């Protein structure tokens, strides 16, 4: 392992920030983010902080931080999410920032989605 990672692990607990705007609510990516984060939170070596606008959690081992977003006009939502989350994250020290959303600061960025052609044919049910 990299020397930097060993230094992080030697701390009292690894400080992990997870960004998922609708944590644990409807949707496959939201459920995936919740499942992964809840499992990490069961490890006492990790201190988990979730940054979300809405959430549902089953673990008491997670600290939640609400951030505001601009919902309308819709095109501003990704930008307002990125700016709001970055402001919140910069107020604390994290060893790892794992995001499931487009933001400006991240160590790990998980991209969720279906192949576009599959989505067109099977989700939208659009004929070619």
Automatic annotation (TrEMBL):
One Pfam assignment: Glyco_transf_4
InterPro entries for the chain: Glyco_trans_4-like_N
Species this protein is from: Candidatus Magnetoglobus multicellularis str. Araruama
GO MF annotation terms: glycosyltransferase activity
Name of protein: Glycosyltransferase subfamily 4-like N-terminal domain-containing protein
Domain Glycosyltransferase subfamily 4-like N-terminal: 26-105
């Amino acid at each position: 392992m990299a020397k930097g990672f060993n230094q992080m692990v030697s701390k009292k607990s690894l400080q992990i920030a997870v960004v998922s705007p609708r944590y644990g609510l409807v949707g496959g990516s939201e459920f995936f983010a919740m499942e992964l984060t809840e499992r990490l939170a069961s490890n006492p070596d990790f201190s988990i902080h979730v940054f979300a606008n809405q959430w549902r959690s089953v673990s008491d081992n997670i600290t939640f931080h609400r951030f505001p977003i601009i919902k309308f006009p819709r095109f501003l939502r990704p930008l307002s999410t990125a700016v709001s989350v970055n402001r919140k994250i910069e107020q604390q020290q994290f060893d790892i920032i794992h995001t499931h959303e487009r933001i400006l600061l991240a160590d790990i960025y998980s991209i969720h989605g279906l192949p576009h052609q599959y989505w067109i044919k099977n989700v939208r049910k659009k004929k070619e």
